[in-house]
From TrEMBL:
The keyword Signal applies. Gene3D superfamilies: Periplasmic binding protein-like II. Keywords: Signal. Residues 1-28 form the signal peptide. Pfam families: PBP_like_2. It comes from Bordetella genomosp. 7. Residues 24-249 form the PBP domain. This is Tungsten ABC transporter substrate-binding protein.
Length: 272
């Protein structure tokens, strides 16, 4: 065998190792995103994040929890970027200096689900009247009770209904949207949920959507880069890459393309 062939064969493993070391996958940056259970449990991130990685080479590790917990995590400097849905709390987060800007990115809506035969008679398009009726009848109702964006919306609706005592049937699970819906399904109870999680929920039992279409049920999502001036270790450059991508045409088209059983779960509205 010629010397040149021997040298090539000997060099091949080293060249392969070098290629692996220098490949984009091996050198990919990883950022931590604190987000809500609705974006994770709806399956949106499984659809969205591979497209972002392909475009940027950046990996995203998602910590899914209630919006309040996600904001607290970022306030401790334990996240690089936030993707949440409680606009009032998000604006306070910016005002307190934990981010320099909030970017609207998409929306869906909340719905009230409950027993398909609706024994309390709340079906319609008025969430405030529906909750007042549920409290009056001591109807079974499962609340997330976890300071999430959904829980914050629920509390606003109870307040608008002037309800201070939700009744004997009210249960707060302190859990994510999926577990709360599982509990409601097993109890044949009412619950407030974002539509995205509901459409991807696999265990509806006898539950059905009863209240929808009320403009107060609008559910806006926002993204924010955690301020590196407060936490110098934050990967602000890569986090901003994600924000720029998800609010760009490519990211917005990817959000619009995500469907479950032919139904679109989230509607892009960056820049609006």
């Amino acid at each position: 065998m010629k010397l040149t062939n021997l040298l090539r064969r000997a060099a091949a493993p080293a060249l392969l190792a070098a290629a692996l070391v220098t490949s984009p996958a091996a050198n990919a940056e990883t950022i931590v995103m604190a987000s809500t259970t609705s974006t994770e449990q709806s399956g949106l991130f499984s659809h969205l994040l591979p497209a972002f990685k392909q475009a940027s080479g950046v990996d995203v590790k998602v910590v899914a929890q209630g919006t309040g917990q996600a904001l607290d995590m970022a306030r401790r400097g334990d996240a690089d970027v936030l993707f949440v849905h409680d606009q009032v709390a998000e604006e306070k987060f910016v005002a307190d200096g934990y981010a320099t800007k909030r970017y609207p990115v998409m929306y869906n809506d909340f719905v009230l689900v409950g027993p398909a035969d609706d024994p309390v008679g709340v079906k319609g398009n008025d969430i405030v009247k529906a909750l007042a009726k549920l409290a009056q009848d001591n109807a079974p109702f499962v609340s997330r009770g976890d300071k999430s964006g959904t829980h914050a919306a629920e509390l606003r609706f109870w307040k608008a209904a002037q309800v201070q005592d939700q009744g004997k049937g009210y249960k707060a699970c302190g859990c994510g949207m999926g577990p709360a819906l599982n509990m409601a399904s097993s109890m044949n109870a009412y619950a407030l949920t974002d539509r995205g999680t509901w459409l991807s929920f696999k265990n509806p039992g006898n539950l059905a959507v009863l209240v929808e279409g009320d403009k107060r049920l609008f559910n806006q999502y926002g993204v924010m880069v955690v301020n590196p001036a407060k936490f110098p270790h934050v990967k602000a450059k890569q986090a901003q890459q994600f924000v720029d991508w998800v609010t760009s045409k490519a990211g917005q088209d990817a959000i619009a393309a995500y469907k479950v059983n032919g139904q679109q779960l989230f509607f892009p509205n960056a820049g609006q």
